[in-house]
Specification:
19% of the residues lie in helices and 39% in strands. By secondary structure, the chain is an alpha+beta fold. It folds into 2 domains: 145 residues, Electron Transport, Fmn-binding Protein, Chain A (Pnp Oxidase, Chain A), CATH 2.30.110.10; 149 residues, Nucleoside Triphosphate Pyrophosphohydrolase. Strands 13, 14, 15, 16, 17, 18, 19, 20 and 21 form a 9-stranded mixed sheet that branches. It has a 7-stranded antiparallel sheet with strand order 3-2-6-9-10-5-4. Strands 1-11-12 form a 3-stranded antiparallel sheet. A hairpin with a 2-residue loop joins β9 and β10. It is elongated and about 70 Å long. 34% of the residues are buried.
């Protein structure tokens, strides 16, 4: 691919999973400033150094370039809204946030997984960003679950792990996948042979598992990287649980079923109403390149929003 294609390069960089931080400092007059960043990296233990990259077009860039101190606040999984707020141009970010002054007077966001307060060590010019290197002068961390970010969306690594575990032990479970390739989705024939379904394991007296789903996909002759969770649904009447992942397939042709683009999707052949709903949501989110994880107990559900 062409490295001058900024959009593609950004998408490829976005495959690297990160946490989410808010970088903060104070202006000379004491006004707090902050923005969301996932370019945070630990650099050195001796001396204790870290870095963050700031876009040259960020409004707060000149403040960070000259401020003697700044802080890195690592967000926990319940702080997605804060990430959105600090990625915006809102002028009242700190009025809507619970925060306090750190030992060196940098704004510290409350209830984060960890914070590091730093003195400015070095500023390196790097293309359309500057690299701000800080020397850590104070830090704290606590047992909270961090917020994850990758592939254009937020995720909760700990929730995902719990679901993976559940999928190996739950007795009334369907584990399925939206298998994508170049914007198209794989549908396979259902048991009757007349309808179509997403690839899945479980049902008909058998409980599904991630292992079985993987086996099925490999029996189709596909190599599929199962990635993010897409849906976790529990039917509160029957206790049945459905877990669907998003996965990406290699270029091989499947031995059964085929890949469909949105425009060519045979909606009336898709026999499972839940899967129909999932596909509608999938294509809407694909268009926005923003994915949510949907949790439901059959009566009501909620999205973990990923918009920013
Ligand atoms: C998850 C996420 C990660 C981001 N990471 C960075 C980053 O590392 N560096 C950066 O300059 N902007 C990053 N941004 C964008 C800034 O948060 C955004 O441009 C913000 O408006 C900058 O604030 P300012 O213009 O008020 O300074 C990120 C945004 C999001 C949602």
């Amino acid at each position: 691919m062409d490295p001058t294609n900024a959009r593609e390069l950004r998408n490829a960089f976005g495959r690297f999973l990160t946490g989410v931080t808010i970088i903060t400092c104070k202006e000379a007059d004491g006004t707090p400033r902050g923005f969301t960043a996932n370019s945070f990296t630990s650099v050195s233990l001796d001396p204790p150094l870290l870095l963050v990259c700031i876009g040259k077009t960020a409004e707060s860039r000149p403040v960070f370039e000259t401020s003697t101190h700044f802080a890195v606040n690592i967000l926990c999984e319940t702080q997605k809204d804060l990430s959105g707020l600090f990625a915006s141009k809102d002028t009242d970010k700190f009025d809507r946030t619970s925060w306090r002054d750190g030992p060196q007077n940098s704004p510290l966001i409350n209830d984060v997984v960890a914070w590091f307060e730093c003195s400015r060590h070095q500023v390196v010019d790097a293309g359309d960003h500057i690299i701000l290197i800080g020397r850590v002068c104070g830090f704290e961390h606590q047992e909270l679950h961090p917020l994850g970010y990758g592939h254009g969306g937020y995720f909760s690594p700990c929730i995902e792990q719990a679901v993976v575990n559940a999928s190996d032990t739950h007795s009334n479970l369907v584990v399925g996948a939206i298998v994508e390739r170049n914007g198209e989705v794989l549908l396979v024939p259902d048991d009757s042979g007349d309808g179509l379904r997403l690839p899945h394991s479980g049902e008909g007296g058998h409980s599904g598992s991630l292992r079985n789903l993987r086996q099925q996909l490999s029996d189709l002759g596909l190599r599929v990287a199962l990635g993010f969770l897409f849906t976790v649904e529990e039917d509160s009447d029957t206790g049945a649980q459905a877990i669907y992942y998003r996965g990406e397939a290699n270029e091989a042709s499947p031995s059964r079923g085929e890949f469909y683009a949105l425009a060519a999707l045979p909606w009336d052949k898709i026999t499972d109403a839940n899967e129909k709903r999932m596909l509608e949501r999938y294509f809407a989110e694909l268009a926005r390149q923003r994915f949510n994880v949907y949790f439901s107990d059959g009566r009501q559900g909620h999205m973990d929003p990923v918009d920013h």
